[in-house]
């Protein structure tokens, strides 16, 4: 505990009780529900087979994120969606093969084309990085590892946290729209529903709370939360919304960015949507979290207290707990060893 305390707040003299409690809780969570395959990933998996791999990914990411910082949010979300469907196996990157194209499993309409994925971005970016890695070491580095590394490097490049990304993930060969619809949390879900879905991935309630902090960067379309602005709009029906969006903020959105329930976009952390900071949690505490799933976080007393504790602490504390949860997310149901394949082109399975 003492060493965690030191790492957690590095250099900060006074450690609030809430921070100590967070640190202890995180360790307890780490010990529970460990997923079997995570042990088979390891740091520097490509050190011999493709020593340049991690450097190629990092350099490409830093170069492009400098010019197009919104890429960071795109890659982070892509990695998360990948891990939630069939594990972190790059199945999210596969194109649909057309109805009846015969994967034999009925999964020919890919995850990419499921409704929650229609706002995913960054596919071309990953294809480009993978192309560079393939040029250096053909057939060695998985798309799943490229995505995990690129997401981490992009978040770090915008001044956000870093975390350890052990490698050795293998790529899956199946991508299914139906599974994506079932396994990716809907923004309309309540806290217990979100917690149950995270638990099914071996992730705890605190992982839910800290990973949601990813919404400190990026944007949401009005359609993703329109039911909080307009009764009857959106997938969630009748506009019941505990707790509701702050009334003044909702009115402002209706007048400006979301005049209709449709296509407008809103920064999830207004004013600092390109900066990895505590703005998102501050907004959530003020009932200005855009999505119902954001608002849901403070319906749970313990989660609300954790968020208040992190908001009152130096940003390094958020960075640390976020990084830990990202490291765990990156190990969800990974394929290793001789499972799956190393895809040559991230959009299509290899032909055998
Ligand atoms: C807890 C359940 C979650 C729900 C229900 C959820 C839902 C959503 C929705 C609806 C959007 C907006 C999409 C749009 O309208 O364009 C969004 C954006 C985003 N989400 Fe989540 N999310 C969740 C958790 C996460 C996690 C765990 C991460 C990553 C660790 C993440 C990262 C992001 C990012 C970075 C964006 C912005 C994407 C962009 O700017 O293009 N989300 N999320
Ligand atoms: C995958 O789909 C995208 C968008 O539909 C397309 O641009 C790309 O060429 C496809 N890739 C392959 C390898 O078929
Ligand atoms: C409206 O929302 C409430 C609370 O979630 C739910 O019990 C009810 O079934 C909903 N009604 C309709 C018509 O969707
Ligand atoms: C990025 C991406 O692949 N988006 C797709 C999401 O699904 C729709 C169809 O439902 C496609 O038209 C998009 O291209």
From TrEMBL:
Residue numbers binding substrate: 185
Disulfide bonds: 50-137, 83-88, 143-346, 222-258
Amino acids binding Ca(2+) 2: 216, 269, 277
Catalytic activity, EC: 1.11.1.7
Protein name per Swiss-Prot or TrEMBL: Peroxidase
Active site: 81 (proton acceptor)
Binding site for Ca(2+) 1: 82, 85, 87, 89, 91, 111
UniProt family annotation: Belongs to the peroxidase family. Classical plant (class III) peroxidase subfamily. Belongs to the peroxidase family. Ascorbate peroxidase subfamily.
Entry keyword annotation includes Glycoprotein: yes
GO annotation, cellular component aspect: extracellular region
Primary enzyme class: oxidoreductase
Cofactor note: Binds 1 heme b (iron(II)-protoporphyrin IX) group per subunit.
Function: Removal of H(2)O(2), oxidation of toxic reductants, biosynthesis and degradation of lignin, suberization, auxin catabolism, response to environmental stresses such as wounding, pathogen attack and oxidative stress. These functions might be dependent on each isozyme/isoform in each plant tissue.
Record-level Gene Ontology MF annotations: heme binding; lactoperoxidase activity; metal ion binding
Cofactor: heme b; Ca(2+)
Compartments (UniProt record): Secreted
Gene3D superfamilies cross-referenced by the UniProt entry: 1.10.520.10, Peroxidase, domain 2
Every Plant heme peroxidase family profile domain range: 40-350
Site (Transition state stabilizer): 77
Reactions catalysed: 2 a phenolic donor + H2O2 = 2 a phenolic radical donor + 2 H2O
Disulfide bond recorded as keyword: yes
UniProt keyword terms in alphabetical order: Calcium, Disulfide bond, Glycoprotein, Heme, Hydrogen peroxide, Iron, Membrane, Metal-binding, Oxidoreductase, Peroxidase, Pyrrolidone carboxylic acid, Secreted, Signal, Transmembrane, Transmembrane helix
Residue sites binding heme b per the record: 215
Gene Ontology biological process terms, A to Z: hydrogen peroxide catabolic process; response to oxidative stress
Segments crossing the lipid bilayer: 12-35
Alphabetical list of SUPFAM superfamilies matching this protein: Heme-dependent peroxidases
């Amino acid at each position: 505990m003492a060493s965690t305390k030191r790492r957690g707040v590095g250099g900060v003299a006074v450690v609030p009780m809430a921070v100590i409690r967070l640190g202890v809780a995180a360790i307890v969570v780490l010990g529970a529900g460990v997923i079997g395959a995570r042990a088979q990933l390891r740091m520097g998996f490509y050190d011999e087979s493709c020593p340049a791999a991690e450097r190629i990914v990092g350099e490409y990411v830093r170069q492009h994120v400098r010019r197009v910082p919104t890429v960071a949010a795109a890659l982070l979300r892509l990695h998360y969606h990948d891990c939630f469907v069939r594990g972190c196996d790059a199945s999210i990157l596969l194109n649909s093969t057309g109805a009846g194209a015969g994967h034999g499993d009925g999964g020919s309409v890919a995850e990419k084309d499921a409704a929650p994925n229609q706002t995913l971005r960054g596919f071309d970016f990953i294809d480009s990085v993978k192309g560079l890695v393939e040029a250096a070491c053909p057939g060695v580095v998985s798309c799943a590892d490229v995505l995990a590394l690129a997401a981490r490097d992009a978040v770090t490049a915008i001044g956000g946290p870093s975390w350890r990304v052990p490698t050795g993930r293998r790529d899956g060969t199946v991508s299914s729209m139906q599974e994506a619809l079932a396994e990716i949390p809907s923004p309309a879900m309540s806290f217990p529903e979100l917690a149950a879905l995270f638990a099914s991935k071996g992730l705890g309630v605190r992982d839910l709370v800290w990973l949601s902090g990813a919404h400190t960067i990026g944007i949401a379309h009005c359609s993703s939360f329109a039911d909080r602005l307009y009764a009857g709009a959106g997938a969630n029906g009748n506009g019941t919304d505990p707790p509701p969006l702050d009334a003044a903020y909702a009115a402002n959105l209706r007048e400006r960015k979301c005049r209709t329930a449709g296509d407008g976009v809103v920064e999830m952390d207004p004013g600092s949507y390109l900066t990895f900071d505590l703005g998102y949690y501050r907004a959530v505490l003020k009932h200005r979290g855009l999505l119902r799933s954001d608002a849901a976080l403070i319906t749970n007393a313990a989660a609300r207290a954790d968020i208040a504790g992190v908001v009152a602490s130096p940003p390094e504390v958020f960075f640390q707990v976020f990084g830990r949860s990202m490291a765990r997310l990156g190990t969800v149901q990974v394929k290793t060893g001789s499972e799956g394949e190393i895809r040559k082109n991230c959009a299509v399975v290899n032909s055998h």
